[in-house]
Design brief:
The complex is a heterodimer. Chain A is an all-alpha fold. Chain A is built from 32 helices and 2 strands. In chain A, helix 10 packs antiparallel against helix 12, helix 22 runs parallel beside helix 25 and helix 23 runs antiparallel to helix 24. Helix content of chain B is 79%, strand content 0%. Classes of the chains: A mainly alpha, B mainly alpha.
Amino acid sequence: MIATLLSQFNMLAVESGGPVLESSGWLLENVWLIPLIPAISFVLIILFGKKAPKEGAEIGMVSIIAVLVLSFLTMTQWMSARDQAVPTTDGEAAVAVLDQAVGGSGEQAAAGDSVDDGAGETAQSFEAAVDAEGGESGQYLPVVRDTDWWSVGALTITVGTMVDGLTVMMLVTVGLVSTLVHLFSLEYVKGDTRFTHYYAFLSLFTSAMLLYVVSSSLLQMLVAWELVGLCSFVLIGHWWEEKANTDASMKAFLTNRVGDIGLLVGVTILIVTLGTSDVLEINRLALNGGTSHLVLLVASCCLMAAVASKSGQFPLHTWLPDAMAGPTPVSALIHAATMVVAGVFLIARLYPVFWEGLSIGTSSINLMAVMGGFTTIMAGALAFVQRDIKKVLAYSTVSQLGYMVMALGVGAWTAGVFHLFTHAFFKACLFLGAGALSHACHHSFDMKAEMGGLRKKMPLTFWTFILGTGALAGVPPLAGFWSKDELLAGAWAGQEQGYPIIFIMGCIIAFLTAAYMTRVIWLVFFGEYRGHDHPHDPPLVMALPLLVLSALAVIAGFFNLPHTGPFKNLPDNIAERFLHYVEPTYFEAFPVVKHSGFITWIALLSIGLGLLAIFTTSMYYKKCVALGVTELPNGLTKRNKLFAAGYKFLENKYYLDHLYTGIIAGGTKGVIARATNWFNSNVLDGIVNGAGRSAVAGGRWTYKNIDQGVVDAVVKGSGTGSSGVGQLLRGIQTGKVQQYGALLFAGVTVLAAVFIVVV
Amino acid sequence: MLLNQFLLLAAILFCIGVYGVIARRNAVMVLMSVELILNAVNINLVAFGQLHDVTFGHVFALFVIAVAAAEVGVGLALVIMIYRNKRSVDLDQVDLMKG
């Protein structure tokens, strides 16, 4: 059935290759099919999975492969549509002209002529670009297809799909990683008691994530956002028999709730003030002065809270390392490659809102960049003190997510999104590698106790892991190098002003990343094997995803080769492909961002820092290996009190968990309990004496409590009353027939006496 | 013929029956007491039928006797079942419905 469906798609795709600006590929219009397939698969697995020969895994595999194929078809349709809309050279020219226009207006602003809120400026430059092109704007609008969901008064909430470069990129990334994780899991969770359940929720997660990226409406995005959160909760707690796992899933869920409040408030502010739920329309209005700067500032701060929770930014990152309690393929899919980038995607999707709200284009420091920069360093430092390989990777993920947020915060939109793209592959590769390691080593993730010297025993895992590590550490020419370098250059160049502080943070983390990953490599693959098992390379089903992902970790960076500096002689159809296809060109609803291009000294600096980190760390562990230990007995942290204290501080994760559970949660609980008690004894009594006076004094909060107090009292009172009466009547029910008989006769006698007296 | 004598006899029988139903602990005795009550009613029925010179009273009394026979059959069956389960026909011990 799916095969025939696919052939239909192909036919239609070929047929609709005409003029593209209005209508485009069939799949671009009907992209809702892609999330629908895994949703159906979820239902099928839940209903029939147990009885299927492979316990439901085959349904999941078929659906995810269909999703992958459709995603690639969507991508090719998008690419051909994009190319036909504006011939490549013209498109480049338009961008170039736009850059000039921005440069010009930027200079004007710097000269102090008119520095207002920036919206007018962008509009000006947009018009300038249009003029310069002679009426040809060079825009290519996303394909939006939506319908009214419901309406309240003048406000109509729509629902539908929106396809642009960003969507297509996410579709391919999610489809690809999800397929490989499905495949890997066949072996990894084989024989698990809840195997079917596991595959069902992988399907549901994939469906929700795809729904999220194709959403055209903010409210629809919110729904999908919550759905992926739910799947994350379920899959973290997959092995719920152990309390630690349920705790971790509860922690993830509750921490995400904190951010979700921010999302709800931010979305509500945007929808109510701008009067629409359509993402494209919101972006257009935000950029063109549809509402005040203050509203956008508040909305973007609220949305930043959501980003912090979902994408593990400081201070709400604490759930992500604990989420490693779930099965490793889940960590690779959800907590490294896809779900945790939902926050980054939110920023990228609503970029004009943040651009205006946080003044990204005009400042040299802002909330988003600082939050990202701080998170990346903080998490990078934490990665050093972990024994658990998955925890290292988790903190590394937090750190890299901070990197993406930082990139978006300095206006390097493409760099941030490109890093999202490359990171998905090499981090998934590393996570699945960690899965393969633990699969071979007693199901343990402890690098110090159970691993070491695995280079010879597991060569395939070793080499794929090395490639993933190289990509993460930014070793040229692997994927991470290109995206990281673009990001650093973007931070240095900034928009109207550079972001020097953020740039320095970026350089520090380039060093830290290389260092902690080198530590992992040494601990796991070198020295003597410290475990008590017979580790060997994984079977083909697990090896194949590793190979594919490590290949992607090598080549993903070439999708966006720079086109300036030493690379300016590259042909047009090779350089900056990612930029060309993914970065929006609809300047009415997307800010005109400046592109830094390739800056040679920054590239050399980041390579130098990386190599320095690898070298110093290797020196340390070389000594360790020579001594046959995992940490030097006379290392800095052992000799120096200050460093020892720092180590302890890191080991306790900056005491953030203590702060949250002990002080904030504990404090709040106690305060609320006491406040409620006080309320009961003072206010409720007062209400009895003078309800009106107390109600005015207590305000809305009081009202709520009166309501609850009174209604509760009535409900509870009726309950207590009936149970009391029941207790009383219970005494008569002795079960003795004769007593019943006696009562019966007594009753009849009384009635007869009454009858006689009355009549 | 004095109606009073019959009514008095019936009243005495009825009281003995009620006493038996309430006070006796043996289930068989209770069933027998129920018979006394029914027969007290029968005496009343026959006496009033005789007084008004109609046959309804007799017919009704015969009907009651038939029903009473069936009732005793069921009652004794219950008693046997109780005895099998409890090894006793003491009604004080059959208080499974205690609330």
